Amino acid sequence: MLTYKGKDFLLNGEKFSIYSGAIHYFRVLPEYWADRLAKLKAAGFNTVETYVCWNLHEPEKGKFDFSGRLDLAAFLQTAQRLGLYALVRPGPYICAEWDNGGLPAWLAREPGMQVRCGDPRFMAHVADFFHRLLPALAPLQVSRGGNILAMQVENEYGSYGNDKAYLRFLRDLMQDQGIDCLLYTSDGPTVDMLSGGRLDGVLPTLNFGSGAGEAFSLLAGEDIPKMCMEFWCGWFDHWGEQHHARNPESVVAEIRSLLEQDASFNVYMFHGGTNFGFTAGANRNLRYRPTVTSYDYGAPLNEYGDYTPLYYALRQLLCSHRGITPPPLPPRPQLQAPGRVELSRQTSLLGQALGQIHHSPLPRFMEDYGQSHGLIYYETALPGPTAGGWLTCENLHDLAWVFVDGKLLGSLDISCPRRKLEQLKPKNRLPLPPCPAGTKIGVLVEAMGRVNYGPGPMDRKGITGLRLGGQYLMDFTVTTLPLDDLSGLDFTRPAGGYPRVYRGTFTVDSQDECFVDLCNFTKGMVYVNGFNLGRYWNRGPQQTLYLPGVLLHPGKSNEITVLELSGCAQPAVCLTDSPRLG
Length: 582
What we know:
Mean pLDDT: 96
Low-confidence stretches: none
């Protein structure tokens, strides 16, 4: 077992240093797990760290999924076969730039429930999940012949709250379910964060990207090992911002400092992977900022598993420090450029039989209709004529397209782009011209990422009212569009305006990696052979979407579907071997 005595970790009684790298199993397709983990091992690391995503494992209350890409046990067993130990961070909250910080959206259906605290309703849901998760992890602990060294209690809790009874509940719940490995907390390097998030009897660790000496000074009076649970080697991107890049030399210098202090660490991220589908999160400080699809993070191993200059530098440093000969490197990923794909079929999205239809006197958030992600469409007909005025979408989250008798009136976006003229526009209202009785007013709302960090958890999506001047419009037909499955699209329907769905086919000779270049498109999402690659947006900085080669069918017809929300210059994409993140 992993224990500690004074400043040292001990593994089965022998001094042990944790040199870990973060790889999230849910951001990497399982066909690549062994490759990414082997590259972690080849860089001189001895441990892999991963969060656990509650919202994917329990997408609906009581419906659990630990298969395929979500087979955490298989991921950990693969790591063990390759000679790697593991750190597991089960949450229930994980942040991770992941939608809602990993909390299931269905929690928002219970009015007034408080999360990440001692609310009995929240704790009961956590207990139900942990009762399924933890018995599967218990046999994988080092004490039972597995590779799990330690597990985390909550995550960066001091950045949010200080409910010690809640933290004790989580600790006791884990131990009751057979978790006997070392438990730890992790928090930012401030007095308030550390005091709010730590728990008696549980090892405190710190998260930072520089200044190890100053950070560890917060624990200077304590006879415990130095552990940086998240050493931030890079950063993530929001739509409409510059791509983040960090000088590899600065990362190496900070890691060298950690080694000189005999500190253990976890490089966050070693391999970031991808926010496939609708899984990317968001931040809200002064404004709402959704996260891009790529989680490349500037990591040593990039989004598609290739080596970077940082990888080689860290490999040299770690192997030299540990006195080991660098093992042979696993092969680099092979890239291909299939070229231009014409999207010869197209149809309108609205009016398709893709979602469920509800009727409401007033609009409600999508979670109230049992929906967790995608689009939601609200429509009503004016019972009488109107002289027009400001049409306001109340509590809009996050983007809306407003239609009058099927024609686009305008769009609304609560995020604040860099362009000053855009910043001056009202974010939740449009001028409506005079309209006769019977005019149909429709509002299509896209749920971007739910806020994953800081105050205001349970970021709900959609609208709660549509007001013309001071008068609420009522009697809505609401269509939920989770967009999990587009196979039911009817392409015999005319395309009309946007949102519009384009589809085409292509062939490839191999399962080599490639990227979808969407320079002809504005905003939407891409599916290849039914798999949702994620969102694109010409706002940048991400310009291409990663297409994992294992999704392709060599020598057969492959299908690509593009759901475009705003406008397309040409109905064609380019499959290229060149990713563009900046």
